[in-house]
């Protein structure tokens, strides 16, 4: 039952994010957010390429989406851009550090809750030592990385590169044996 409901959610979620970005996105300043949205999509594709033959997580097929690659494309092109746009549109840049951390924490909790739902429905699996706690770390880095890129893009790219090197080494991703 959960698998069925969450399979439909996987299909509906991109539309909900599109509606959310239409409703809560700062469309007047969209050009200001565009570089960070591209950063987000690029990093997602870069990680997908690195992990293609040695996945740390795999999206499982559902009623509407038959394989991992299509799920990854939907996330990269429809969900992540909308998340970044809404996140940055409503980010409390001029508020206290505590309010900024609280704002990011709400997004992190939502992201990890959605992933937990997909995990409970067996629509995502973890492999090669990956687990829920690593996903939590990624969600944390993801939202603070979006904030960092928006204000200090070079630092965000350097941090992203360092984290990628860490993942390759720690999880023994065999990039030297790829085609």
Overview of the molecule:
With 179 residues, the chain is mostly helical. The chain has helices spanning 2-24, 30-50, 68-89, 97-120, 132-151, 153-170; strands spanning 57-59, 124-126. The protein has a two-stranded antiparallel sheet. The chain is globular. The model has no long low-confidence stretch (mean pLDDT 93).
Give the gist of this structure:
With 179 residues, the chain is mainly alpha-helical. It has 6 helices and 2 strands. A two-stranded antiparallel sheet has the order 1-2.
* Sheet with most strands: strand arrangement: 1-2
Shape: globular
Secondary-structure element pattern, one letter each: HHEHHEHH
Helix content: over 70%
Assign the structural class, choosing from mainly alpha, mainly beta, alpha/beta, alpha+beta, or little secondary structure: mainly alpha
Strand tally: 2
Strand content: under 5%
Integer average pLDDT: 93
N-to-C CA distance:
40 Å
Q: Which stretches are low in confidence, meaning pLDDT under 50 for 5 or more residues running?
A: none
How is the main sheet built? 2 strands, antiparallel
Radius of gyration: 16 Å
- The number of helices is 6
Per-chain topology:
Elements: H1 2-24, H2 30-50, E1 57-59, H3 68-89, H4 97-120, E2 124-126, H5 132-151, H6 153-170
Antiparallel strand pairs: 1-2
Helix pairs in contact: 1-3, 2-3, 2-5, 2-6, 4-5, 5-6
List the defining traits of the structure above.
single chain, 179 residues, mainly alpha, two-stranded antiparallel sheet
């Amino acid at each position: 039952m959960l698998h069925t409901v969450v399979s439909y959610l996987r299909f509906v979620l991109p539309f909900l994010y599109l509606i959310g970005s239409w409703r809560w996105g700062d469309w007047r300043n969209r050009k200001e957010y565009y570089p960070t949205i591209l950063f987000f999509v690029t990093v997602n594709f870069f990680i997908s390429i690195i992990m293609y033959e040695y996945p740390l997580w795999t999206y499982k097929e559902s009623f509407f989406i038959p394989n991992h690659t299509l799920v990854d494309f939907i996330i990269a092109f429809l969900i992540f851009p909308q998340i970044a746009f809404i996140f940055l549109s409503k980010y409390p840049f001029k508020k206290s550090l505590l309010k900024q951390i609280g704002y990011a924490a709400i997004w992190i909790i939502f992201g990890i809750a959605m992933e937990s739902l997909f995990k409970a429905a067996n629509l995502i699996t973890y492999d090669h030592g990956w687990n829920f706690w690593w996903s939590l770390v990624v969600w944390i880095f993801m939202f603070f990385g979006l904030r960092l890129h928006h204000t200090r893009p070079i630092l965000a790219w350097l941090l992203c590169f360092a984290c990628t090197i860490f993942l390759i080494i720690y999880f023994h991703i065999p990039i030297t044996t790829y085609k």
